[in-house]
Amino acid sequence: MKKYLLQENSWVEAKKYFAENDVVLLPVGSTEQHGPQNPLGTDHLIARALAEETAKQTGTLCLPVVPFGVSSHHKQFWGTISVKPEVLREYVRHICLSLKYYGVKKVVIVNGHGGNASALLEVAREFRERGMFVSIFQWWPASREFLPNIFSSEERGHAAAEETSVNLAIHPHLVDMEKALDEKPRKPPAETAGIIGWIFDTIDYTSSGVFGKASTASIERGKKVFETAIKELVKHVKTVKELEIEDLLSKHPV
Ligand SMILES: [Zn+2]
User: Fold this and answer.
1) Which of 81, 148, 230, 245 is deepest in the core (most CB within 10 A)?
2) What fold characterizes domain 6-247?
3) Residue 73 CA to ligand 1 centre (angstroms)
4) Cβ count within 10 A of residue 123
5) CA of 240 to the centre of ligand 1 (A)
6) Interval 16-35 mean pLDDT
7) 2, 132, 238, 241 from 248: Cα distances, Å
């Protein structure tokens, strides 16, 4: 398949793809602050790059990226656009319903923003009951598992060196390393051991939006992370393609 992006196909070409294939890739991300050095689009631009490269390598159709996600915890930083979890869930649900209508049975979501995960998991669980397998891939656990020593823990936070390095690897012109800084996150008031901190906003932890060390980001390490994530994602897409849909769906009562 030459045209692996849905938006570049005609309906006639899409019809042919859906007649012969039952898998698609859907990148989902966010538009939110990523420190002074990174673009607001970081999460959806990385998700899109991973999904499009995987589409090319596996001959799988890739949908346009969903650029907005659950980001209200970054709202004090200008330019962050957020939707509620139920809005994202319904939006992705309806994308899946459209795909189901054309016979798609397997959707691989490439999620670039951790805050989207619970809304996306709800969709995946619902569709597994309804005859469609939806899996969710996130690049940072993939790199953590397969490149354990490449970044220190303080380089792994939001907008820190790991994420900045991936940006440097895929769109260096959008990163301003002169603005990259290191900021040790502080504890917000009343956060103690045992208290889940998810109610606090980013501003409660950092003034720059960076969690940790960003100044050490490098293209070389970013490339390694990106390539590792692609390798894992390609493997996952191939596996999903080969498996029978019946083996992926919810089981009947015993
Ligand atoms: Zn991010």
Assistant:
1) 230
2) Rossmann fold (3.40.50)
3) 12
4) 23
5) 26
6) 98
7) 28, 8, 14, 11
